[in-house]
Design a protein that fits this description.
Largest sheet: 2 strands, parallel
Order of helices and strands: HHHHEHHHEHHEEHH
Bound molecules: heme C
Shape: globular
Strand content: under 5%
Distance between the termini: 33 Å
Strand order of the largest sheet: 1-2
Number of domains: 2
Helix content: 40-55%
Number of strands: 4
């Protein structure tokens, strides 16, 4: 199928002519002080050091800068392979982060939902195709065989922190599967994550529901 045709089909199935549904206004605001403590407790500080101290990752003051929450969710997604490889090498377990903890971490890193644009659903469709999500997953049964179908209604489409927490758990296995299949691991810049999640949220709200659990 040509990319143009796929986009045309997506436009129809996602009802992209409907007005874009609002941003991530549903999440409880994170607590930056709690986030500071979590940053240490979740081992982030092992690699992200204060300026002037050598660290494996970008310095703490680079991480902590005003940014959109979905933009930050995209950055967290990007850095999974490098972090997973480095942690595994040193024999550390992948840190578990719940949605509430993620909201606190994001507040500490100056993530702000108001800095994310209202999602552009057309760009979201282009992102969905370009990032290769449909090589593994389906959207309303069009695409690959890996569960879940991305049009299933999920609570984590409603907030950047919940989405980032799900992806934090999911991306190490996804990165491993991409490696096995010779697919490149998708990376996100700028507004791409905000547009993609806006699209998936819109698709899931307009899809016939009843297939599978909403979210964990
Ligand atoms: C084992 C080392 C390591 C640990 C532990 C680690 N990181 Fe990173 N982090 C990196 C590396 C390396 C990069 C840059 C590489 C990349 O983006 O692929 C990075 C990049 C990032 C970025 C993106 C920076 C940017 O501006 O694009 C964020 C945000 C981030 N880390 C947050 C965290 C948080 C939050 C934790 C703790 C839960 C954490 N990191 C733990 C190594 C680590
Ligand atoms: C190389 C194959 C592959 C690609 C590409 C891929 N995924 Fe996944 N995805 C998986 C696998 C495997 C799982 C199940 C992982 C697990 O159980 O931890 C999964 C799980 C998920 C889940 C459910 C997570 C949960 O915990 O409920 C969501 C949502 C998801 N993927 C979204 C996406 C999006 C959005 C993209 C594109 C940006 C994408 N995936 C690209 C393989 C992939």
């Amino acid at each position: 199928m040509s990319p143009q045709r796929t986009v045309a089909i997506l436009l129809v199935v996602t009802g992209a002519c409907a007005p874009a549904l609002g941003g991530s206004a549903f999440a409880a605001p994170g607590d930056a002080e709690a986030g500071r403590a979590l940053f240490a407790a979740k081992q982030c500080g092992r690699c992200h050091r204060p300026p002037g101290e050598p660290g494996i990752g970008p310095a703490l003051d680079v991480l902590r800068r005003p940014q959109g929450e979905m933009e930050l969710a995209g950055r967290l997604w990007n850095h999974v392979p490098a972090m997973a490889a480095s942690l595994a090498q040193d024999g550390f377990e992948w840190p578990r982060i719940g949605a509430g903890e993620m909201a606190d971490l994001m507040a500490y890193l100056l993530g702000d939902a108001a800095r994310d644009p209202a999602p552009d659903l057309f760009k979201g469709q282009v992102t969905l195709l370009r990032k290769g999500c449909l090589k593994c997953h389906s959207l309303r049964r069009e695409g690959g065989p890996v569960k879940p179908d991305l049009a299933e209604r999920r609570a984590d489409y409603e907030s950047a922190a919940a989405w980032a927490a799900t992806m934090w758990t999911h991306t190490p296995r996804m990165a491993a599967m991409a490696r096995q299949q010779g697919l490149s691991y998708p990376r996100f810049v700028g507004d791409e994550m905000a547009n993609l999640i806006g699209l998936l949220r819109s698709a899931s709200r307009t899809a016939p529901q009843g297939s599978g659990p909403a979210s964990r």
